[in-house]
Amino acid sequence: MHISLLKVTTFFYLAGAILYLYFIVTLKERGARLGRMALLIGVILHVAGFALRYATAGYTPVTNLFESLSFFALSIACVFLVVEIRYNMRTLGAFVAPLAFVFSIFSAFLPGEVAELAPALNSYWLPVHVLLLFVGDAVFAVAFGAGIMYLLQEKQVKQKKMGAIFKRLPSLDVLDDINYRCLTIGFPLLTMGIITGSIWAEYAWGSYWSWDPKETWSLITWLLYAALLHGRLTVGWRGRKAAILAIVGFCAVLFTFLGVNLLLPGLHTYSSLSR
């Protein structure tokens, strides 16, 4: 039952993404309203599936690739809905909702059987560490979407060709503000996630930091966002540079999350696509 619920959310995330894209093309309010409704239904079903899987497994289900991709999709959908309601940023859905769908569809094609928890993962640090990192990464996903929108809007302004896309996207100042606010929320979450992971590593493996590929790339990602935050606060980085770095930073997030786990051997490596 829980596997079916987790997989059926893919349909609602797809519907939400399509409806938000329909809205940005037609500017018909109904598209945005239906898109939000589809995402909200998807989130409700996703949370229900996650809760059932938790009850079945007996631990926080974020320990393999199926669970991690699924939970990342849920995190992105939830964070986006909060931002959309807070800023009335309906057009942002056309750039962020597809991310939730992509991660959920990849998850849907992976084996979803509940496996026995590895001894190293049997810790109360698991939900704390994972929740901080995934929510932080989801916030960076929103910044990624806002960054792409900023570059598209800036191109229109520089070319002085106020085409259809100009009327559909928020102003550059609004997009830059969203980028900054996401940074000020996501960076502390990322920092706390790394710190809790280090504490957990000391309990599990006897060392706070072992330069495992996952740890190394987490540090690289942290340094990228730290540089962006430092530049915004001290040098006044804004606009295009901040948007590009938000996009680069999220690419580093994705490599840390997926590339390292699947390609580089280490303590965090998935032994197979199901683990």
What does this structure look like?
78% of the residues lie in helices and 0% in strands. The protein has 275 residues and is mainly α. The chain folds into 2 domains: 1-117; 124-275, no CATH class. It is flat. Mean pLDDT is 86; it is low at 270-275.
Biggest β-sheet description:
none
Order of helices and strands: HHHHHHHHH
The share of residues in helices is over 70%
Total count of domains: 2
Quickly count the helices: 9
Strand content: under 5%
Radius of gyration: 19 Å
Stretches where pLDDT is under 50 for at least 5 consecutive residues are 270-275
Question: Which secondary-structure class do the elements indicate?
Answer: mainly alpha
Terminal Cα span: 20 Å
Q: Return the average pLDDT rounded to an integer.
A: 86
Number of strands: 0
Estimate the global geometry from the Cα principal axes.
Answer: flat
Topology:
Layout: H1 2-26, H2 29-57, H3 65-87, H4 93-108, H5 125-159, H6 164-168, H7 172-205, H8 213-235, H9 239-263
Helix pairs in contact: 1-2, 1-4, 2-3, 3-4, 3-5, 5-7, 5-9, 7-8, 7-9, 8-9
Structural features:
275 residues; mainly alpha; 9 helices; flat; disordered C terminus
Task: Describe the structure concisely.
With 275 residues, the chain is an all-alpha fold. Helices cover 78% and strands 0% of the residues.
